[in-house]
Design a protein that fits this description.
Immunoglobulin-like; elongated; alpha+beta; single chain; 4 domains; about 650 residues; 5-stranded antiparallel β-sheet
Length: about 650
């Protein structure tokens, strides 16, 4: 057989024929030796072009050969291979099927690559049928059997996945982010603060990787510019993640002079003039003499996820996490374990703003071939559930890279070399299927300050699940008192701000039923502990017309216990208030009984009774109008007032 017969295999990288092809067989009519000599000569030129990676020129020559010899089976097979290499899978399938229709006996040995192109076009059932037929051939060598069985497992997975998920109703339409972001250079690895209004991403120009930024203005991304400051250098900066509050940028720096390994993790901080500081190596707790990359920071900036091939893993690259302690130091990284990691590679972790959903890339978990994107949900601080493949068409038979999911839980961003890309990798957005979304996550941000001086106060901001009384997160403000706390939908939260020497602040957010796209800005003036200072306890709950404390009130009451224990001379008045529904005498009695219930709980926790005074005000001190539900809700409250300190 002439060398042109191998063009297909050369084009897509197959170096071993699945078995010896013969030029004559029962039922086969096609004979390469009978092909028009002029067509063969043109086809030989096409081979040379393909060998040099000049696929467009090769296809033109094959087209010319097919005009002369329309039944040139090898030409169709070769063009099918080139289309497959260019990921034009449907065109590849069309050429394979034309060759098979012309002579199935000659073409059937190519059922393995044909099945791959079918899978590339999304027809996994037909691909499975083709690979099963291929495996029935006698005299297959071990390489071909191994390759075919691997493909068979991926096709079976794809067919089974489609049966279990609503893929037919899912519309996958990635949108190019436009000329403000994408150029003829390579753009990839996007990252966003929680409001999604700014994007930091990598751009590679002449083999130099730098960070660029773009702003979302009226639904369009502005012309990207290099980020300001000292973070971009003549070295390569890549694989970055901006914190949800937009204040930190953690990234991968490779072959830096001060690096501990081939690639290390670095951090840069945003300055007051919105530029970035010179990068700082995260040190030998995080970095080793091996490879560390692909950082992702939790919304509270306490957990740093990354990929590394350091010692102690399960093989290849694993995903690890390090926790930031109260003193600001990072802990020894912990492997996420065999549920997440395999003996192959797990990379590109992304922890969503809900702090519970992890997206990552793996070629070790079963999928569609090459590497796929997966998600896993956090069960508790150390246990993750079984990773779930994101499914076709997000995952394909080709390599998938990183995925970033916005705070809404559905809008996703990734890099791809799709047909409408400028050249190479461009950035795209698309929506996830409902069953693979993270929790929609809102946020509350603001500044904590001294009520008297308006000076910013470093302090602790805590979020607690009201129903199960579990602390969700504890965030330290910056030195100026600025904070950001995320609020995944589906829960009701108690919100507390604490600083020694001040009355704590109390609020709550109900997100179990109220669907809203609003984020909250709350500036919190903390009151120094002194006579006359007061605070409303917004997480003390009673049933209607009842004075028995509900269990969900306990976390808030325990804050009062801590306040009293930290300030042993402090005496408090516990005031109960109602709306104006019902008789005034009854409201005074009910409010006094509720205040008394609070006092009794505090006494049960060891507080001396002489430090507490219960008083019922009924509806005599309203904060809102009693003609609306919102106003009535404001008026039904428990309040503490400092008597002495």
């Amino acid at each position: 057989m002439k060398r042109g017969a191998y063009l297909y295999l050369k084009a897509i990288g197959f170096t071993i024929l699945c078995f010896t092809l013969t030029t004559s067989s029962f039922g086969q009519w096609y004979n390469p030796d009978n092909v028009n000599k002029k067509a063969i000569a043109i086809y030989e030129t096409a081979y040379d072009y393909a060998s040099n990676g000049q696929y467009a020129e090769s296809i033109k020559k094959i087209d010319e050969a097919l005009v002369i010899e329309p039944r040139y089976v090898e030409a169709y097979l070769s063009r099918a291979g080139i289309h497959a290499d260019l990921k034009n899978y449907q065109s590849s399938v069309n050429d394979f099927e034309k060759a098979i229709s012309l002579d199935s006996v000659f073409s059937n040995p190519y059922l393995l690559p044909y099945s791959i192109s079918l899978a590339g076009s999304g027809d996994f059932e037909k691909a499975l049928s083709a690979i099963n037929k291929f495996l029935q051939y006698p005299d297959l060598n071990q390489y071909s059997i191994k390759s075919a069985n691997y493909r068979k497992r991926t096709y079976e997975f794809a067919v089974d996945y489609a049966k279990k998920h609503s893929l037919q109703t899912y519309i996958f339409t990635p949108k190019n982010l436009g000329p403000g972001v994408n150029t003829t250079a390579l753009e990839y690895y996007p990252s966003f603060p929680i409001d999604g209004k700014k994007m930091i991403f990598n751009r590679r120009v002449d083999n130099d990787e730098d960070f660029y930024e773009s702003d979302l203005i009226k639904g369009e991304w502005s012309n990207a510019v290099p980020v300001s400051g000292k973070i971009n250098t003549t070295l390569n900066e890549g694989a970055q993640n901006i914190s949800q509050d937009g204040e930190w940028l953690i990234f991968t720096g490779c072959n830096y002079p001060e690096g501990l390994g081939s690639c290390d993790l670095y951090i840069s901080y945003k300055t007051k003039n919105n530029s970035w500081t010179e990068a700082i190596n995260l040190g030998d707790k995080i970095n080793t003499d091996q490879w560390e990359s692909a950082p992702s920071l939790s919304s509270d900036k306490k957990d740093l996820y990354f990929s590394s091939n350091r010692n102690g893993g399960y093989g290849g690259k694993d995903i690890w996490v390090s926790h930031k302690s109260i003193n600001g130091k990072w802990s020894d990284p912990k492997n996420l374990g065999p549920t997440i990691n395999t003996s192959s590679d797990e990379t590109c972790p992304f922890i969503h703003a809900d702090n519970a959903t992890l997206y990552f890339n793996s070629n070790g978990h079963l999928g569609y071939g090459a590497s796929d994107l997966f998600l896993s949900k956090k069960i508790n601080d150390s246990i993750w559930n079984t990773p779930e493949n994101l499914g076709y068409p997000i995952n394909t038979i080709d390599e998938e890279g990183s995925l970033v999911v916005a705070s809404d839980g559905k809008t996703s961003y990734y890099a791809s070399d799709r047909g409408d890309s400028k050249a190479g990798l461009d950035l795209y957005s698309f929506e996830l299927r409902e069953d693979i979304r993270a929790a929609k996550t809102l946020w509350v941000k603001g500044r904590v300050l001294d009520k008297k001086t308006n000076t910013g106060l470093p302090c602790t901001v805590e979020l607690t699940d009201i129903i199960n009384r579990k602390k969700i997160t504890s965030v330290q403000t910056d030195e100026d008192g600025n904070y950001l706390v995320t609020l995944p939908e589906g829960k009701d939260y108690a919100f507390n701000v604490n600083r020694k020497g001040y009355l704590f602040y109390s609020d709550n957010f109900s997100l179990t039923k109220n669907n809203t796209d609003t984020f909250f800005t709350i500036n919190i003036p903390l009151q120094p502990i002194q006579p006359g200072a007061s605070v409303i306890l917004k997480n003390i709950f009673f049933d209607n017309n009842d004075f028995s404390l509900k269990d969900v009130s306990i976390p808030e009451l325990d804050k009062v216990v801590i306040l009293l224990n930290e300030n042993p001379k402090l005496t408090l008045q516990i005031g109960g208030h109602t709306d104006n529904i019902g008789k005034k005498e009854a409201n005074i009695s009910l409010s006094f009984s509720r205040a008394t219930s609070v006092v009794k709980y505090l006494i049960s926790k060891g507080i001396n009774p002489i430090r507490l005074v219960a008083k019922g005000f009924g509806d005599s001190k309203p904060l809102g109008m009693n003609d609306t539900e919102e106003g009535k809700s404001l008026n039904r409250r428990t309040e503490i007032n400092v008597l002495t300190n």
